[in-house]
Amino acid sequence: FIKEIKDMGYKVKLDTNGTHPEVIKELLDENLLDYVAMDIKASPKKYNEVTRCNVNLELIKSTIKILKNSGIKHEFRTTYLPVLDEKDIDEITGTFVGKNSKYFIQQFRNVVTNDPKYHKMIPHKSADVLAAADIAKAHIGLCGVRGV
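Now predict its structure.
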């Protein structure tokens, strides 16, 4: 499908959770992607809690490495869920993302979710999201914020 889209002359942006690095590598090798946005859901210790499944973090790390070495425009992002805190952002940006990457912290919105339990969760205050971004900047130099 992506090849058909590219053949029509359109650019392709792929959003991914990073659990299938082999697919990302294949698409990149075939020059089928113009931009990739990858969600990093949580710090390693909270990944399974946030995703509610057993995630192989080595796959996540592999996808990050592939993207960082690909030369393609990409970004990493984390939705700042109420179960996450500044320590998680510190660990995400220090462990996963690293230097010279485009990274965004997205404000959690409790009305835009498929899981009703999140509807009752209170989002972080804007000042707390900005403080988390400052922590990320210490690791990567630049961190954007969305939804604040």
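The first helix runs from residue 2 to 7.
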